[in-house]
Design a protein that fits this description.
9 helices, nine-stranded mixed sheet, globular, 276 residues, alpha/beta, TIM Barrel, two-stranded antiparallel sheet
Length: 276
């Protein structure tokens, strides 16, 4: 058993390796960790790097892959790369759910037979409340996209990022996602983290290394402790959760992750991360 596989098995680190495909986005969400927007620097990982890193991840002992951004589907040719990744390990891609044209859905259709899912964001069952945080007509586009993905056999998960959704509001949101065919076990609810653009709006909870999931995250700028790590404020990359600038071969950031996880030690034996 590899060192990574052993650490995953005993819960020292998470089994999912994350990759930031890009940083640019067609939305400008109020609480975005990475200050993503249409005009920001793309900080894009080449598609061949996604494929190569997926193969390395399987060899190293990781058990799953995650792709995030930015909005990953702004990257031309991404569906084919996702297919290659899912052929290596189960893969989930995070999306704002607004770009699923008939053409893109057709490009994703071959992934229906692979261990692959799209996780879309929806923060409220109230269109006005949701769109106030994410952008005009976001609610409408997401609610339209979910059944269209499912019709093509693509598994869909839902992520809700909230400052504190009231029980009634959460209940209505759960009724909505169930009506769209997304079961409760595929609905993730998490707090706004006070990093990136959320800081400018006074939103979210403070989160240190011990509060965040220990999931190695690869970006164009380096390797980080968690997908919540490579955040941006005022156009500058935060480096407090940077493990190493070296991301190739994957064994180097993986070893750095294991060293830090060993130093964090007792964190995993207590309550574990607050944010997942």
């Amino acid at each position: 058993m590899s060192a990574v596989a052993g650490a995953v098995a005993d819960g020292t680190v998470g089994g999912r390796l994350w990759l930031y495909a890009n940083y640019h986005c067609n939305l400008t969400c109020t609480y975005c960790l990475t200050e993503s927007a249409p005009a920001v620097a793309r900080r894009q990982l080449p598609l061949d790097r996604l494929r190569e890193t997926a193969a390395e991840a399987r060899t190293e002992g990781f058990t799953a892959l995650g792709v995030t951004g930015g909005e990953p589907f702004l990257v031309p040719g991404l569906p084919a790369a996702l297919g290659a990744m899912a052929a290596e390990l189960p893969t989930v891609v995070l999306s704002n759910g607004t770009l699923f044209t008939t053409r893109l859905l057709g490009e994703l259709a071959p992934l229906a037979d692979l261990p692959f899912a799209v996780q879309v964001s929806l923060d409220s069952a109230d269109p006005e409340a949701n769109d106030g945080m994410r952008g005009p007509r976001n609610f409408e586009k997401v609610v339209d996209a979910i059944p269209r993905l499912r019709e093509r056999g693509i598994a869909v998960r839902l992520a809700t990022t909230t400052e504190g959704l009231e029980p009634d509001g959460l209940a209505r949101l759960c009724e909505l996602h169930r009506s769209l065919g997304v079961p409760d076990e595929d609905h993730v609810v998490r707090p706004v983290v006070r990093r990136g653009r959320a800081l400018d709006h006074g939103l979210g909870v403070e989160a240190a290394l011990a509060d965040l999931p220990a999931e190695l995250t690869i970006t164009a700028d380096g390797a980080f402790w968690s997908p919540f790590g490579p955040t941006v404020r005022g156009g500058r990359l935060d480096t407090d959760l940077l493990l190493t600038r070296t991301t190739r071969p994957l064994s180097i950031p993986a070893a750095a992750m294991l060293r830090v996880a060993g130093l964090a030690g007792s964190r995993a034996d207590e309550e574990g991360p607050r944010i997942r």
